[in-house]
Amino acid sequence: MTFWNDPLKVAAEWLTGVFTGWGMNAVPAHVLVAFLGVLMLITILMVIDIFLVWIERKVVARFQDRIGPNRLGPFGLIQPFADIIKLMIKEDTTPAGADKFVYNIAPMLSMMSVLILWAVVPLAPVMLGVDLNAGILFIIAAGSIGTLSIIMAGWSSNNKFSVIGAFRQVAVMVSFEVPMLAVMLIPTIFSGSMGMNAIIQAQDIWFILLSPLAALIFLIAAIAELGRAPFDLAEGESELVSGYNIEYSGMKFGMFYAGELLHAFTFGGFWAIMFFGGYRFFGLEKVSPFLAIAIVLFKAMLGYWVIMWVKYTVLRIRIDQMLAFNWKFLTPVAFVLVMVTALMNALLRGADGWLYITGMILSNVIVAWVSLEVVRSAAKAERGRVEGVQVVEAAHH
Amino acid sequence: MTAEQIIFLIVGAVTLLAGLMVVTVRNLVHAALWLVATLFGVAIVYALLNAGFIAVVQVVVYIGAIAILFIFAVMLTRRQAADTGPALNKNWWGGALMSVLTFAGLAYLLQGWSGFSKQAAAIPSGFDAVSQLGNVLTSPQGYVLPFEVASVLLLAALVGAVYLAFNKK
C-alpha cells in the first residue's frame, strides 16, 4: 500500500502515528484525523467554489456573445477574489423586525446543505467520505435541509417579497423531489444498491445508455431543485426583485450565492456519478486515485456546463406551468419509467449484454413516445377548449 | 462510559429540550423550527442505533415534508405568528398524568426485558441492513401484509385529499 495507490489512508495512518507519538490516545487521534480530513475536503470545495464564480461568469458571457471578466489577472482570474473582498467589506444589514437568530442561521444552513452532500460523493474507488447504503436518499435528505434554510431565510427577513420568493422556491423544491427520487431508483435497479460507490462499480455500461430518459428527467429535476432557469421563478427579478435572499447583504448573501453555484456543480457531479460512470473511464481510474479524481471532477464540470447551458438559453416559466409540468407530466412519467425498468430488469436478468441494452433502450423510447403522445392529445383538447369548439369544427369543414 | 453513550446523552438532552421548546414557545414558526430540531435529534438516535436508512428516511419525510408543511400552514393561515393567551388550558393535569403513566409503563416493560441491560451485539461485516429491510417488507413470511395495508391506507388518504381539494365545476 503506497501513497500513490491509497493516498488518504496512508496520510491518515501517518498522521495518526504522529499524534499518538505525541502522547495522544488512539481514539481522540482518530477523531482528530477524521476532522482534519473533513476540513481538507471542505477547504478544497470552497476553493473550487471561488473559481466556479469565474467559470459561471465566463460561460454566461460566451453564451451571450460577450467576453466576461477580463481585466484582473490572466483571463480575469483574479476577479472572483475581488468579488469576495467586496462582499466581505460590505455593510452587514439586518432588516427591522427581522427574526435575528433565524435570519443569521439560514445562510449557514444553506451552505451546509450543499457541503454535506460531498460526504457521500466517491472521488476515487478508495476516496470517499462514507459509503452510506442509503446514499441516494441522503441526497434528498440534504436537499430538505436546503428547503428548510430557504423558508427560514424568506420568513425571518420580514419582507413580503422574500416570503413569496421562499414560497415559490419551496414549492418547486418539494414538488421536484418526487420525480427526482423516482428516477434515482433506476440506477438502484441496475446496480442493486443505493450506495454511490456500488452504483459506480456497476457501470460497466454507463447507465445513460441503459436509460437515457431517466438521465434526462434527473437533469430536469436537478435544475428545478437548484432553482435555476427555466425554474428560477423564485428569483423573478421583474416581480420579486431577488426572491428569498432579497434582504441579505455582504457575505451572508455570498453564502447563498456560493451555495447555489456549488450546488449546481455538485448536481453535475451526481448526474455524472449516476449516469456517466462517475470516476470510471475505460480503466483509467485503476491507474491512480488522482486520475480518478480528475475524471470525476471533469465529468462534474461537464454536467455543470450543461446546467449552465440550459440556464442561459431557456426562458423562465410561470409557477402554474411549473406545477402542471411536474405533477401532470414529469412525476407520472418518472413513476411509469421506474415500473417499466423494474419489470424489464426482472425479465431480461439472464439475457446477454446486447439484448439487455436493446430492451432497456426500447422500453425507454416507448415510454417517452407514449408520454409525448398523451401530452400532445391533451394539449390538442385544451387548445380546442380554449379557442372554442366551433373554430376547430369550421377549420375541419 | 463509551463515546457512543456520551453522544447519546448529549443528543437525548438536546432532543428533549427542543421538544419542550416546541410546546412552550409562543411563536408558532419558532415552534415548528424547534420541532425540526427534535426530529433531527431522533434521526441522530437512529443513526447511533446503526439504522442509517431509517435515519435518512426520518430526515426526508419528517423534516423535508411534514415540518415544511407545518411551516407553510402556519404562514398561510395565521395573520400573527405569535400566540397570545395562557399557554395551558384546564386539562393540563390530564395530559401530564397520561405522559407520566406512559413513561412509567414503558419503563416497567423495558425493565422486564432481558436485553435491557445488555450491550448490543456487534453487526457482522457485510451485513446490508437496507436489503434485509427490503426482503422483510416484501416477503410473505415477513411483513408484506401490513406493508400493503399501509400503502392502501396512504393511497386512500391521497385520493381523499385530491377529492376534497378538487374544484367541482
Number of helices of chain B: 6
Helix content of chain B: over 70%
Give a quick account of the main beta sheet of chain A: strands, pairing sense, barrel closure: 2 strands, antiparallel
- H-E order of chain B: HHHHHH
Assembly level = heterodimer
Q: Structural class, from helix and strand content of chain B?
A: mainly alpha
End-to-end separation of chain A: 81 Å
Shape of chain A: globular
Radius of gyration of chain B: 20 Å
| Helical percentage of chain A | over 70%
Spatial extent as radius of gyration of chain A: 24 Å
- What is the architecture of the largest domain in chain B at the second tier of CATH? Up-down Bundle
Strand order of the largest sheet of chain A: 1-2
In short:
Helix content of chain A is 72%, strand content 1%. Chain A contains 15 helices and two strands.
Describe the structure.
- The complex is a heterodimer of chains A (397) and B (169).
- Chain A has a domain at 90-315.
- Helix content of chain A is 72%, strand content 1%.
- Chain A has helices at residues 7-21, 26-63, 79-89, 100-115, 135-156, 160-191, 196-201, 207-210, 212-226, 237-240, 250-275, 289-311, 319-347, 353-387, 389-396, and strands at 122-124, 127-128.
- A two-stranded antiparallel ribbon of chain A has the order 1-2.
- In chain A, a hairpin with a 2-residue loop joins strand 1 and strand 2 (127-128).
- In chain A, helix 2 (26-63) packs across helix 11 and helix 6 (160-191) packs parallel to helix 13 (319-347).
- Chain A starts with 6 loop residues before the first helix and ends with a helix.
- Chain B has helices spanning 3-24, 28-48, 52-77, 92-111, 129-138, 144-165.
- Chain B has 169 residues and is mainly alpha-helical.
- Classes of the chains: A mainly alpha (397), B mainly alpha (169).
- The A-B interface holds A 27, 99, 102, 132-134, 137-138, 140-141, 143-145, 147-148, 151-152, 155, 163, 167, 170, 174, 177, 194 and B 3, 29-30, 33, 36, 52-53, 56-57, 59-60, 63-65, 67-68, 71-72, 75, 128-130.
